[in-house]
Design goal:
It contains nine helices and eight strands. The chain is α/β, with parallel strands linked by helices and 224 residues long. The chain binds pyridoxal-5'-phosphate.
Length: 224
């Protein structure tokens, strides 16, 4: 099947209101172009260099999402144009996003990556740490970051019950944050970015507002 057909199939399976981020990492600009021509505008990459390269080669109305682990010293390369950073996983990284956003005179929409997976290898801030951060109002220091919600990477498993439980715990963490944060301080904290090719249906059933789907659209990745 073509990228266009696979994109249409994924979109048809997503409930209304769930935003699709097409994860184009490792695929050439031509593949992004094919999805773009079919109407897709949100694309996700997990490496800064690839994100910067594709941004320079492709139409300027594409909304680029940084979804992978982000090193502090590379924030400056994407700060001028990135649509959303999904993978803020430390206070030190938030400090750098704030610094670079200020330099660019931008407010950068950002998600906190929370570690809700049972698997120990996954990245992200511990849920208790995230909850305490917002309850203490620490987010109010970041004038150039718009806190838009939470993101998670689920455990790599085909146990659907476990995946559902992990997605539910991200949704519960979001509710807890909204309850505990200073009143009115998180007006845009609405996103739950969870779900990938293998599990976006389960994520959507459990409150996902945004899914990151790569191989189901672009085919298998070819890592050399
Ligand atoms: C690669 C990647 C995805 C997409 O994975 P698929 O299984 O190909 O859909 C989603 N999120 C992140 C953070 C990724 O790195």
């Amino acid at each position: 099947m073509s990228v266009r057909e696979q994109l249409a199939e994924v979109q048809a399976r997503l409930p209304q209101g769930v935003r699709l981020v097409a994860v184009s990492k490792t695929h050439p600009a031509a593949a992004v172009r094919e999805a773009y021509d079919a109407g897709q505008r949100d694309f996700g990459e997990n490496k800064v260099q690839e994100l910067v390269d594709k941004h320079s080669q492709l139409p300027s109305d594409i909304r680029w999402h940084m979804i992978g682990h982000l090193q502090r010293n590379k924030v400056k390369y994407i700060a001028p144009f990135v649509h959303m950073i999904h993978s803020a996983d430390s206070v030190a990284l938030l400090d750098e996003i704030q610094r670079q956003a200020l330099r660019c005179n931008r407010v950068i929409p950002t998600l906190i990556e929370a570690h809700v997976a049972r698997e120990e290898t996954k990245s992200g801030m511990l849920p208790d740490h995230v909850a305490a951060f917002f309850a203490a109002g620490e987010h109010l220091r970041y004038t150039n970051i718009e806190f838009r919600g939470l993101m998670c990477m689920a455990t790599y498993t085909d146990d659907r019950a476990q995946l559902a439980a992990e997605f539910q715990s991200l949704a519960a963490l979001s509710r807890e944050i909204l309850r505990a944060a200073p009143q009115g301080s998180l007006p845009d904290f609405v996103e739950l970015c969870m779900g990938m090719s293998a599990d976006y249906d389960i994520a959507a059933q459990n409150g996902s507002t945004m899914v990151r789907v790569g191989s189901a659209i672009f085919g298998q990745r070819d890592y050399r």
